[in-house]
């Protein structure tokens, strides 16, 4: 069983930045692809970014060029650097882990954390 714990959310003005972190355990979680998805009230779950075990990344068009997903060398801590934040980025952000994650499946299958709130005003 994989445990994911997110942190780093908060409130920020439009144009600002936040960095989210997600700690994955146990160490065997390093074998999974990982990603971030978000959920806003009244909106569908949206896959935001994916990083596979080789370090290849995929981004939603809505965040491309503004968000960067990365992980530490042990592949057990996941990050999401968010720049140029917009009000439409507001939502609960979750990290996820599974084999072969895609933007369309992140959050729908595999393991997910409890989420961290991001509010952009």
Integer-rounded radius of gyration = 13 Å
| Assembly state of the chains shown | single chain
Percent helix range? under 10%
Fraction of residues in β-strands: over 45%
How far is the N terminus from the C terminus?
37 Å
Number of helices: 0
Mean pLDDT: 96
Reported for the largest beta sheet, the result is: 7 strands, mixed
Give a short synopsis of this structure.
The protein has 121 residues and is mainly beta. The chain has no helices and eleven strands.
Descriptive report:
This protein is mainly β and 121 residues long. It is 0% helix and 48% strand. The chain has strands at residues 3-7, 10-12, 18-25, 33-39, 46-51, 57-59, 67-71, 77-82, 91-98, 111-112, 116-120. Strands 2, 4, 5, 6, 9, 10 and 11 form a seven-stranded mixed β-sheet that branches. It has a four-stranded antiparallel β-sheet with strand order 1-3-8-7, with no helix packed on it. β4 and β5 (46-51) form a beta hairpin.
Topology (elements, then pairings):
Blueprint: E1 3-7, E2 10-12, E3 18-25, E4 33-39, E5 46-51, E6 57-59, E7 67-71, E8 77-82, E9 91-98, E10 111-112, E11 116-120
Parallel strand pairs: 2-11
Antiparallel strand pairs: 1-3, 3-8, 4-5, 4-9, 5-6, 7-8, 9-10, 9-11
Pick out its properties.
121 residues, mainly beta, 0% helix, single chain, globular
